[in-house]
C-alpha cells in the first residue's frame, strides 16, 4: 500500500468511527511523523523493536511528554490494529508511567493584568471568555453566536472533549464585554471569526496570549490553557464545591478535577503553622 493510500485509508477509518475533527487532525499528524521516521521502510515490514526505537526517539530526542507519548502509542495502535489489521510483536497496551506536575496557575491580579495589556477588543474578549467560562482553546474557537444564552445566563459548549455537550455559566461582566464586542465586530456564525470569516484559529489565540504575557511581564511558564487552570483554582479558592467545578470543566472523572485541590489556597489558609504559636512570637 502506497503512503498516500495509507493516509486516505487511515482518515477514512477515523471518520467511520466518528472521531472528532480535532482528534482526526492529531492522529493524522502523528501518522505523518511516524511515516517520516521510518522513511523508506514499508509499514508491513515494521518490527516490534522498530516501534520501541520510535517511541524511544520521541522520548529522548523530541522530549515528548507523557500525554504526547500516550498519543503516539494510540496512533500506532490504530494504524496496526485497525487500518492495517496486522499482528506485530509489540505491546500496544504498553504502560507508560505518568508524572504528576502541578499546572501553572495565574493569580487574579495576573489575569487582570493580562486583560489590561490586551488593547484589541476582539483579543481581550477571547481571553476573557476562555477564563470566565473555563474553556479549552478548541471550545473557544468552536463557539457560535447561538451558543450564548443571555436570558438563562448560560453558554452552551457543543461537542467538547469526548464529544460531549455541556452548559457553563455566563458571568454578567462577560456578557457586557460580549455585547460591546458583537456591536463592533458583528460576528455572523462563529462568535470569534477571522478577518476573512470562519472560525478564529487556535494559533492566533496562542500568539495573542503570548504577547499579553510579555506585556504583562509575567515570568511564569504559562499557556492559553493556564486560563482554564486559573478559572478552576480561583473557584476553589472561593470555596466552590469541587463537584460543580467538575461539571463546569466537563471532566468525566472527579479525580481529574481534584488536581486543583493541590494548588488552591482555600484549605491552606485555614492551616496554622506551628511556627505561628505564641512560644515563637518573641523570636521574630
Quick overview of this protein structure:
The chain is 52% helix and 4% strand. It is mostly helical and 284 residues long.
Gap between N and C termini: 76 Å
Q: Estimate what percentage of residues fall within beta strands.
A: under 5%
Individual helix count: 13
What is the CATH superfamily classification of the largest domain? Answer: Intergrase catalytic core
CATH architecture of the largest domain: Orthogonal Bundle
Name the CATH class of the largest domain.
Mainly Alpha
Number of domains: 2
Structure in words:
The protein has about 280 residues and is mainly alpha-helical. The protein has a 3-stranded antiparallel sheet. It has 2 domains: about 5-85, DNA polymerase, domain 1, CATH 1.10.150; about 110-270, Intergrase catalytic core (hpI Integrase, Chain A). Helix 6 runs antiparallel to helix 8 (about 170-185). It is globular. The protein is about 50% helix and about 5% strand.
Question: What are the key terms here?
Answer:
three-stranded antiparallel β-sheet; 284 residues; DNA polymerase, domain 1; hpI Integrase, Chain A; mainly alpha; 13 helices; 52% helix; 3 strands
What topology emerges from the helices and strands here?
Blueprint: H1 3-16, H2 21-38, H3 48-60, H4 66-83, H5 108-117, H6 121-133, H7 137-141, E1 148-149, E2 154-157, E3 166-169, H8 172-185, H9 202-215, H10 225-237, H11 242-249, H12 254-257, H13 278-281
